[in-house]
């Protein structure tokens, strides 16, 4: 079994989901008392979110690359950034490491294709929804048409992530807001919705939606297990 290196704490709520998913999938696949070989370096999310708000991406890129290198030096055979938004740092990370990095947008694209969707709604932080780093992979590598919510709805999605989900808080009010946003996209022809923030699965699941739900946290973790076992 190869060792998985996780950049965690972005946020710890989703990092614990990764740890649970990785170990559960390994146990299901190998049976017995099997569990995942992994190492985690977990950051202080307060520091990360402050730098994001200040548009200090250069510092974040350096920080992510340094962590990835430490994980590699500690024996990681593959690196996972346990957050969609911080895949903005992937170019900087790849300059520092020689082991593979499993890109969450590429994993999401494969999952969308597997579900037969051509047009999807992308939900996530405002950075993930508004910047091109994520959408370009979906469009250019997979030919997927990507919808994002209106500016007002993007603020709702973003604020729920940072003020509630990052703290493990889920409310029926926020769930209804998300479902209403998904329904709007469905009317625009969306065949699926990418939960492009690793905390959103705390709030939204397939049973909440009429269209296909792509849980990037689960897909990312399962793809890492496939790599680790093959």
Q: How would you portray this structure in words?
A:
By secondary structure, this protein is an alpha/beta fold. The protein has 2 domains: 4-102 and 219-229, Rossmann fold (3-Layer(aba) Sandwich), CATH 3.40.50.1860; 104-215, Rossmann fold (3-Layer(aba) Sandwich). The protein is built from 10 helices and 7 strands. It has helices at 12-30, 45-53, 57-73, 90-96, 104-114, 126-130, 132-142, 151-163, 172-187, 216-229; strands at 4-8, 38-42, 78-81, 119-123, 145-147, 192-195, 212-215. The strands form 2 sheets. A 4-stranded parallel β-sheet has the order 5-4-6-7, sandwiched between helices. Helix 8 packs antiparallel against helix 9 (172-187). The chain is globular. The N and C termini lie close together (8 Å). The mean pLDDT is 96.
Task: Describe the secondary structure blueprint for this structure.
Layout: E1 4-8, H1 12-30, E2 38-42, H2 45-53, H3 57-73, E3 78-81, H4 90-96, H5 104-114, E4 119-123, H6 126-130, H7 132-142, E5 145-147, H8 151-163, H9 172-187, E6 192-195, E7 212-215, H10 216-229
Helix pairs in contact: 1-10, 3-4, 5-7, 5-10, 8-9
Protein name: Aspartate/glutamate racemase family protein
Organism: Zobellia barbeyronii
Pfam families: Asp_Glu_race
């Amino acid at each position: 079994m190869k060792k998985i290196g996780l950049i965690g704490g972005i946020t710890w709520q989703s990092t614990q989901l990764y740890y649970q998913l990785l170990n559960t999938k390994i146990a299901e696949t190998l049976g017995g008392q099997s569990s995942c070989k992994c190492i985690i370096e977990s950051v202080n999310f307060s520091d990360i979110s402050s730098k994001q708000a200040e548009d200090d991406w250069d510092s974040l890129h350096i920080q992510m690359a340094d962590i990835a290198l430490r994980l590699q030096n500690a024996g990681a055979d593959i690196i996972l950034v346990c957050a969609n938004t911080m895949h903005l740092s992937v170019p900087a990370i790849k300059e520092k490491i020689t082991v593979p990095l499993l890109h969450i947008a590429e994993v999401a694209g494969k999952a969308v294709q597997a579900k037969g969707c051509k047009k999807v709604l992308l939900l996530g932080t405002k950075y993930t929804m508004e910047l091109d780093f994520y959408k370009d992979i979906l469009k250019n590598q997979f030919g997927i048409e990507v919808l994002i919510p209106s500016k007002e709805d993007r603020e709702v999605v973003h604020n729920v992530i940072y003020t509630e989900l990052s703290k493990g808080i889920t409310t029926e009010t926020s769930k209804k807001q998300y479902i209403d946003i998904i329904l709007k996209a469905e009317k625009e022809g969306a065949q699926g919705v990418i939960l492009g923030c690793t905390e959103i699965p705390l709030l939204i699941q397939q049973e909440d939606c009429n269209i296909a739900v792509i849980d990037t946290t689960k897909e990312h973790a399962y793809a890492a297990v496939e790599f680790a076992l093959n």
